[in-house]
UniProtKB/TrEMBL annotation:
This is Transcriptional regulator containing GAF, AAA-type ATPase, and DNA-binding Fis domains. SMART domains: AAA. Signal peptide: none annotated. SUPFAM superfamilies: GAF domain-like, Homeodomain-like, P-loop containing nucleoside triphosphate hydrolases. One of its GO terms (molecular function) is ATP binding.
Length: 534
C-alpha cells in the first residue's frame, strides 16, 4: 500500500535538493526533511513490529525536539486501545507505572483518544490542563511522572482504515514534521498488519493441509500415496464433496486409481457405516447388466430361478460405484437416469416400486463430452452425473510420486510374501522415474509385485521394464514394438494373477479396467493364447 506524503513534504525535498546542488548551507528544516527521507527509506523495509520499533527508535531520537514517543493501536474489539510501540528510555524498564500503561487497554472513548482519532490532524495537549479538567487516563499520569509538559497526538490512518495514534512528547508545534512522520508510520503499520494477515492465513492453510493429510491417511488407511500438487488438489476435492450427497464423476486414464478415490469419498461420508457397492458396467454382458443393477423376480426370464436383489437395493443408504460408466448401453442409460432422478425403480418382472436412497459415484476413462457429441452417451445422464467432477492425473504428470508409490508397493508385497525387502537402489529409482508408465499406478504396482517375487536381495536391485536395457539407467524404447511388448507382458501377467479368468468379477478385464470385449480383441492382436498364461 502506498500513501501520498504531504505536498509540503514533497516541496521540501525539491527545495533541499536544489540547495545542496547550489552549495548552500542546510537549514534545520532541510535537515529534518533529509532525516524524513532516510526515515521513509527505512520504513519501506519494515515487515514486523520489532522492525518498526527499531526504525522509530533510531530516527525519532535524532530529533532534538522529541523527548519521547509511543504508538497506541486500536484493539480487535474496536473499543479499546493498547500500547504497540513505546520509548523505553524515558524511565527504567521495570518502572511499575510504565509496565501498567504498556499492558493496559484504555477505552477509545475516554475524551482524549477519540478526540485525536477523529481530528484528522495533530492535536496538541498540555498534560496538567487535561488532568485538571478531570481526565484520569493512566497514560496521562505516566507522562506527568516523567516530566512531559506537552504532547501531540496524530491519528495513524490509511485510506481504508484507522490504526491508532502516534504520541510525541514535544513542545514545538511542528505540524508538517508530525504529519510526515504519521504518513510514513501509517504506511508501515498497514504493511505490518497485511504481512501478519498473510502469515496467519499461511499458517492456517498449512495447518489445514496437515490436518487434511492426517485425516486422509487415517480414513484411507494410507492406500492413497501422492504428494504432488495435482494429488493435493484431488484430496481437497475429496474432502469437500465427501460430506455431501451430490453425484461424483471420477475421470482419469486406466490405472490411475479411480476406484480408490471412490472408496475414499465413501469412507469419508456419512454413509461409511455401510459397504460401498460396486458394479463394473464394462465387465458384464449387456443382457445381464439390467438385472445386476435393478434385480429381477423369480421367473421373469429364462434362467431366473429365484428372486435377485440388484445393486441399487444393496446400496440403499450407502454408495453405488458405477465403474466404466461410459460402457453402459444407451437403452440402460435411460433407466439409470430415471432411478437417479426419481430414486425409485422396479425389479425386472416386478410390479412393486422400490424406493432407495443411494449416493452415486461414477468413473470412466472415456471423454464423456465426446461420447455425448458422438451420440454414444446421453447428454441428460452426463449432466446428472457430472455434478462434481474429479480429474485424476496420470502417473506421467506426477513423477515425484513414483518412488514413494514404489516403496509403498515394495512394503506391501514384501509383507504379503514373507520377504524382507527394504526399498530399492538409486539405479532402480532412476529407471522408474524415467519410464512413462502408460498403465499408470496399476502398471507400477504389478511390476513391483513381479520384481519382488524375482528378487533375492534385501533391496530391489533390478526391475524389468518393457523396452528398457536393464543394465543401464537409460531408456531404450523403440515404439511401437516396445509398447506392444509391454502391453503383451502386462496382460499376460494379469491373466496369470486371475488364473486365466478373463471376464466377470475378479477377472483380468476388471483388473485392467477395460471391457472384456476389448481384452479379447487385444489378446487376438497380441497373439496371447492360453499356453502363455496357464
Amino acid at each position: 500500500m502506498k500513501e501520498i506524503i504531504t505536498k509540503h513534504f514533497a516541496e521540501d525535498l525539491i527545495t533541499l535538493a536544489g540547495n545542496i546542488e547550489d552549495g548552500e548551507l542546510v537549514t534545520d528544516e532541510e535537515w529534518e526533511t533529509t532525516l524524513l527521507l532516510d526515515f521513509g527509506n527505512a520504513i519501506a523495509a519494515v515487515k514486523s513490529k520489532e522492525d518498526l520499533f527499531g526504525t522509530v527508535k533510531l530516527f525519532l531520537r535524532k530529533l532534538n525536539i522529541v523527548r519521547g514517543y509511543a504508538i497506541r493501536m486500536i484493539n480487535d474489539d474496536g473499543k479499546t486501545m493498547s500500547t504497540y510501540v513505546h520509548d523505553r528510555t524515558v524511565t527504567a524498564a521495570d518502572d511499575p507505572l510504565i509496565l501498567e500503561v504498556a499492558k493496559a487497554r484504555y477505552p477509545i472513548n475516554d475524551g482524549i483518544q477519540n478526540m485525536v482519532l477523529n481530528s484528522g490532524g495533530p492535536v496538541f495537549l498540555t498534560i496538567d490542563e487535561e488532568i485538571a479538567r478531570g481526565c484520569n487516563a493512566g497514560y496521562l499520569h505516566f507522562w506527568k511522572s516523567v516530566s512531559f509538559i506537552k504532547v501531540v497526538g496524530m491519528p495513524l490512518q490509511t485510506a481504508s482504515q484507522k490504526w491508532g495514534i502516534l504520541w510525541l512528547a514535544m513542545e514545538e508545534q511542528n505540524i508538517p514534521l508530525v504529519e510526515s512522520l504519521c504518513s510514513l508510520i501509517s504506511i508501515a503499520i498497514s504493511n505490518i498488519k497485511t504481512n501478519e494477515q498473510v502469515m496467519v492465513l499461511k499458517e492456517k492453510l498449512e495447518q489445514e493441509n496437515r490436518h487434511l493429510n492426517e485425516q486422509l491417511g487415517h480414513i484411507y488407511n494410507a492406500e492413497i500415496v501422492g504428494r504432488h500438487p495435482k494429488m493435493q488438489d484431488v484430496y481437497k476435492l475429496i474432502s469437500r464433496v465427501a460430506g455431501a450427497t451430490s453425484s461424483v464423476l471420477i475421470l482419469g486414464d486406466t490405472g490411475t486409481g479411480k476406484e480408490l478415490i471412490a472408496r475414499a469419498i465413501h469412507q469419508a461420508s456419512r454413509r461409511s457405516n455401510k459397504l460401498m457397492v460396486k458394479i463394473n458396467c464394462a465387465a458384464m454382458p449387456v443382457n445381464l447388466i439390467e438385472s445386476e443393477l435393478f434385480g429381477h423376480e423369480k421367473g421373469s426370464f429364462t434362467g431366473a430361478f429365484e428372486r435377485r436383489t440388484g445393486k441399487f437395493e444393496q446400496a440403499h443408504n450407502s454408495t453405488l460405484f458405477l465403474d466404466e460408466i461410459g460402457e453402459l448401453p444407451l437403452e440402460l442409460q435411460v433407466k439409470l437416469l430415471r432411478v437417479i432422478q426419481e430414486r425409485e425403480f422396479e425389479r425386472i418382472g416386478g410390479k412393486t416400486t422400490i424406493k432407495v436412497d443411494v449416493r452415486i459415484i461414477a468413473a470412466t476413462n472415456r471423454n464423456l463430452e465426446e461420447e455425448v457429441n458422438a451420440g454414444r452417451f446421453r447428454a441428460d445422464l452426463y449432466y446428472r452425473l457430472n455434478v462434481f467432477p474429479i480429474q485424476l492425473p496420470p502417473l506421467s504428470e506426477r513423477k515425484e510420486d513414483i518412488v514413494p508409490l514404489a516403496n509403498f508397493f515394495i512394503g506391501r508385497y514384501s509383507r504379503q510374501n514373507g520377504l524382507a525387502i527394504k526399498g530399492m537402489t538409486p539405479e532402480v529409482a532412476h529407471m522408474l522415474q524415467k519410464y512413462d508408465w502408460p498403465g499408470n499406478v496399476r502398471e507400477l504396482e504389478h511390476l513391483i509385485e513381479r520384481s519382488i517375487l524375482l528378487s533375492n536381495d534385501s533391496k530391489l536391485r533390478e526391475i524389468h521394464l518393457p523396452g528398457i536395457n536393464n543394465d543401464s539407467s537409460v531408456l531404450d524404447i523403440t515404439p511401437p514394438q516396445a509398447l506392444e511388448a509391454m502391453e503383451r507382458y502386462h496382460i499376460i501377467g494379469t491373466l496369470k494373477r486371475c488364473s486365466g479368468k478373463i471376464g466377470g468379477e475378479g477377472g483380468a478385464a476388471e483388473i485392467l479396467d477395460i471391457p472384456s470385449t476389448t481384452l479379447h480383441s487385444k489378446m487376438r492382436r497380441l497373439k496371447i493364447t492360453k499356453k502363455d498364461y496357464k
